Amino acid sequence: MARQRHGRREFFGLSGAAVAGAVTAPWIGAQPVAAAAVDADADLVVFNAKVYTVDARLPRAEAFAVKAGRFVAVGTTADIKGLIGKNTQQFDARQMTVVPGFTDCHNHAGGDTLLYEVLVGNPFEVEFVTINSIIDKLRVKARQTPPGTWVEGFFFDDTKVKDQRELNRKDLDEVSLEHPVVVRHRGGHTSYYNSKALEMAGVNKSTPNPAGGTFDRDATGELSGRVTDRARNVFNRIGSRVTFNPQQIEQRERDGLAHISKQFVRYGLTTVHHEGGDLAALQQVRARGDLHHRVSYESSGKVLDGMIAAGIMTGFGDDWIRLGATSEHTVDGSFSERTMALSQPYPGIQPAYKGNITETQDDLNAWIEKVHRAGIQVNCHANGDVAIDMFLTAVERAQRLFPRQNARPKITHCTLITEDLVRRIKALDAIPAMFTTYAYYNSDKFVFYGEDLMKRSMAYRTFLDAGVHAAAGSDFSPGPFAPLMGMQGMVTRRGWDGKTWGANQRITVDEALIVNTMNGAYASFEENVKGSITAGKLADFVVLADDPHTVDPEKIKDIQIVRTVVGGTAAYQA
Ligand SMILES: [Zn+2]
Predict the structure, then answer these.
(1) Ligand 1 midpoint to CA 470 (Å)
(2) Architecture of 111-237 per CATH?
(3) Domain with CATH 3.20.20.140 in the chain
(4) What's the gap in Å between 192 CA and the centre of ligand 1?
């Protein structure tokens, strides 16, 4: 017994030294972690595992111990078993794989849509639907909806339609001629309207396209019903919407967040960067015990203005809800919906089309300067090379006017790059949060860009080679958020349809792990508390039934998540 005690003390002595060497953040003292551990048994010991730590100093391990929500020791099964006391929960991983919890750096965590709205596509997986199924679902909704009130469908994906044609105005006229009807593309930048909606908005075939958007026409010059980006603004002013009182709205927000939190941990996510959402509801959900994942909250609107007014900077909060970057400030259109701003015309489109810029350089400069000066991490949505250039120009300007070390400006999507853009991104230590599941899920859309552009798109290989902290941003709802689906696409660049695009951008399984864990932590300035299985860090990890390093790469997405653990507590168990 005494011997064992001695051994344990020695072991913690070692891990304490490792902690001291590793962390610089003031809130993790190396001494308290080690000292507390010596005095008491571990809360949890995981052993007999294939642990990929994503910590270069000890990349592989067999076991680890958790105390008070943090990893306290990582090593061999023999070493760590010495830390088991009578109150220690033991988990024999039976040679299963354990990796750090996954981080999604860009997610519109709108659980209320999943719970309450009409879903005309599958949010989580590749699934083809028929146009008739869409019409049927919306007809049911129309029957329960007073005339003149919007009937809306969500999660449409134009390339996951069995009919193999565009959804159009006439399809939606079959839903109703008395209700304005809209089907929203899951990408968030295009929508499809029926004739009633177009008529109520005063849009006809001779209406000119506004700046930053289009009213699309069919081959005969008639409105097709598809409307892109800013042209959709005219529909905000028309039609009635089902209204809810403030209590109902809050209840829907809370239930939606609780619902999506369960989905996140089911797929192995332990940290998600939320694009806005109701901050009060988020705190209430946490208080009632229904928040299973950690949140980096990305603010906009009133919350962002409030932060600036009150002097609240990025990093404020705690390990469960922390204020991160701003939410994405949009500079251009969409990759999946083919409206992103390119420096060259889209291949094969007449008349020549280069996508939509949705912000002027002057407005962007002013917004970035304001946020940057306030000590808040800027974050812009920039897909095309033109938009990324605009973003970098604005950040470089802000840094000249008000130099700030370690600002880590975030580029949401950062899809199409050039050598010069990569150089400037590296110089600013900007963080590209690139699409993850798209390589698998959206391979059917890459033909619109062609192989030349795809070689420079979602450029994980190029960024990692350049030493850029490339991170994962699913952009749910536009993309499914499953991290393993994302990893598979990063490793294979092959889609559900068997087509491979931009194979030059493939990365290894180990690199994909770094992207989905450590680089995600870096993106929110949390690399000292998250992102790897390291003594002193938060005990967030995932147990996988198979090892992504050894399974057929085409099957990484099918690996079962056995358990997701957040802060040492199982948040999900298969
Ligand atoms: Zn987004």
Answers:
(1) 16
(2) Roll (3.10)
(3) 261-531
(4) 19
**What distance in angstroms lies between residue 520's CA and the mean position of ligand 1's atoms?**
16
CA of 337 to the centre of ligand 1 (A): 13
Q: CB of 192 within 8 A of CB of 182? A: yes
Distance, CA 108 to ligand 1 centroid (Å)?
Answer: 6
* CA of residue 225 to ligand 1 center, whole Å: 23
Q: How far does residue 435's CA lie from ligand 1's centre (Å)?
A: 10
CB 181 within 8 A of CB 148: no
First to last CA, the chain: 37
How far, in Å, from the CA of 241 to the mean position of ligand 1? 24
Q: Where are the alpha helices (DSSP H) in 495-569?
A: 509-516, 518-523
DSSP structure string for 24-89: --TTS-HHHHHHHHHHS--SEEEES-EEE---TTS-EESEEEEETTEEEEEE-HHHHHTT--TT-E
Closest CA to 531 of 4, 212, 101: 101
Of the CA atoms within 13 Å of residue 82, those in its CB half-sphere come to 21
Specify the residue for token string 């400030």. Answer: 329
Could you give the 3-state DSSP secondary structure of residue 493? coil
pLDDT in tens, 196-236: 999 999 999 999 999 989 999 999 999 999 999 999 999 99
Report how far ligand 1's centroid is from the alpha carbon of 217 (Å). Answer: 27
Q: Which pLDDT tens digit goes with each residue over 275-308? A: 999 999 999 999 999 999 999 999 999 999 999 9
Task: Output the CA 11–ligand 1 centroid distance in Å.
Answer: 45
Matching residue, tokens 């007449």: 350
Q: Give the predicted TM-score (pTM) of the model.
A: 0.88
CB 355 within 8 A of CB 341: yes
* Regions of the chain where pLDDT drops below 70: 1-39
What is the distance in A from the centroid of ligand 1 to the CA of 383? 11
Name 240's bridge partners.
Answer: 149
Q: 103: which residues sit within 8 A by CB, 6+ positions away?
A: 269, 270, 271, 272, 273, 471, 472, 516, 517, 520, 521, 523, 530, 531
Strand partners, 69: none
**Ligand 1 centroid to residue 69 C-alpha, Å:** 31
| Distant-in-sequence, close-in-space partners of 533: CB < 8 Å, separation ≥ 6 | 51, 52, 53, 54, 55, 61, 64, 71, 74, 98, 99, 100, 541
Instruction: For residue 384, report the distance from its CA to the centre of ligand 1, in Å.
Output: 14
267's tokens: 């797929």
Ion ligand 1 nearby residues (CB, 5 A)? 475
What residue spans in the chain does CATH classification 3.10.310.70 cover?
A: 111-237
- Distance of CA 376 from the midpoint of ligand 1 (Å): 19
Reply yes or no on domain 261-531 having CATH 3.20.20.140: yes
Q: What distance in angstroms lies between residue 379's CA and the mean position of ligand 1's atoms?
A: 11
199 φ, ψ to 5°? -65, -45
Read off the tokens for 60. 């592989």
- 494: amino acid identity, one letter: R
Measured CA to CA, the distance from residue 121 to residue 167 in angstroms comes to 13
Phi/psi at 493 (5° precision): 55, 25
| Torsion angles phi and psi, residue 75, rounded to 5 | 180, -145
Residues 472, 455: Cα–Cα separation, whole Å? 18
